[in-house]
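To: structure subgroup
Subject: Chain for Friday's discussion

All,

I'm putting the inputs and outputs inline so they're searchable in the archive.
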Amino acid sequence: MKKNLSILIGLLGCCGVASASTITIDGNLADWGIDKTNWKPADSSVNYTIEDQVGSGSYFLSPGWGGQAYDAEAIYAKISQADQKLYIALATGHNPRTLNQPSANSFGAGDFAIDFGKDGRFDLGINIKHALSVQNGVYTFESFGVEGGVYSNPTWEYGLWTSAGAYTPTGSAAYNPDRLHPTHLLAGTYRGMASLAYTTTPATGYGSRPGDGHYFYEMSVDLALLTRSGWNGQAFDIHWTENCANDSIWVDPPGSVPEPGSLTLAALALAGLLGSRRKTSRAGR
């Protein structure tokens, strides 16, 4: 019996601890186990999308403007059952401190958008306050919301491109942006905070062009916060682009996470199997 109890405890430990996260939210993606040569993570529980593209002219991007300074390289997502968090990481050539000054052809950092159900409606936003100006090293930022704030019922701004990739200037009567690429929040209902970090100094040594500079975002969101914001366990997409939408990137993490009750049911099932094994052993004596 003691041996069987030890086996049960060990199996429960596997259920409850195997997915324990070691991710620290500090803007350093080393704990994601990313291979610098190809952007792929070592952790099989991480979903990812890689867009390290090379071409001619204004390469890397779709629609294709801005070069490395507006490039989205890779995005990662992981749902941790151990601490009930959604983890997100992004690698981009876009400096988060890029000024949002459209008249000067400069566009700031976009927000992260989440589409519950993957139906093209973006139900949640994670706010990255883009910079408007800088003087003597001191930045001023947009007025909406708080940095790292999570907002439901969002109103979105969009970029400079139609769904066919044609230029569509903001403010014009013919403005017709691609609604699948929301750029930043204009309004929303505050739900809580994500843990957020990002870098503002470029790092090299990654991808197909290791001399290019890259910047990294990293964040975590409590699954309970997602639930309060309308998530019911279904699959969802995470989207990011800059305020011009020159390049965008998506990732779709696993949709459902076993509730604590599921682990209890697993424990009971294991106990039943062990009890059945014990009875069979006695009957065979």
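Points worth raising on Friday:
The longest strand covers residues 182-193.
The radius of gyration is 23 Å.

D.
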